[in-house]
Design a protein that fits this description.
With about 90 residues, the chain is an all-beta fold. It is built from no helices and seven strands. β3 and β4 form a beta hairpin.
C-alpha cells in the first residue's frame, strides 16, 4: 500500500528516458496508497509524488496520466474534475 509497491494502479505513461509513471488509486476509505509511482521496466524505483486531498497537487481519485512533447506530465482527477500539470519529478507547474 505504501512505499515502492503499486496499489490499485490505474493507468501509465512513459517518458523519453524510459521512466514509467503509474497513478495508484488506492481504495475507498484508505488514502495511504493514493500516489503516482515512478519506475522503469527493469524494476528500478525512482520515487513517488502526490497524496490525498483537494489542494493543488493533491488528488482524490486519479483517472489519467499523459506526457506531452515538452515533457510536461498531466494527471487528471475524476472526483475533483481537474487536470494538474507537473514536471517529470512531480512538481506542479503554474
Amino acid at each position: 500500500m505504501e512505499g515502492r509497491g503499486l496499489y490499485y494502479p490505474w493507468s501509465m505513461t512513459m517518458d523519453s528516458n524510459g521512466r514509467i509513471y503509474v497513478p495508484n488509486r488506492s481504495v475507498d476509505g484508505d488514502i495511504r496508497g493514493l500516489r503516482t509511482t515512478i519506475m522503469d521496466i527493469e524494476e528500478n524505483y525512482y520515487g513517488t509524488f502526490g497524496k490525498f486531498g483537494e489542494e493543488p497537487g493533491e488528488n482524490k481519485w486519479l483517472s489519467g496520466i499523459a506526457i506531452d512533447s515538452n515533457e510536461r506530465l498531466y494527471t487528471t482527477d475524476e472526483s475533483l474534475n481537474r487536470v494538474d500539470v507537473r514536471n517529470l519529478d512531480g512538481d506542479l507547474i503554474d
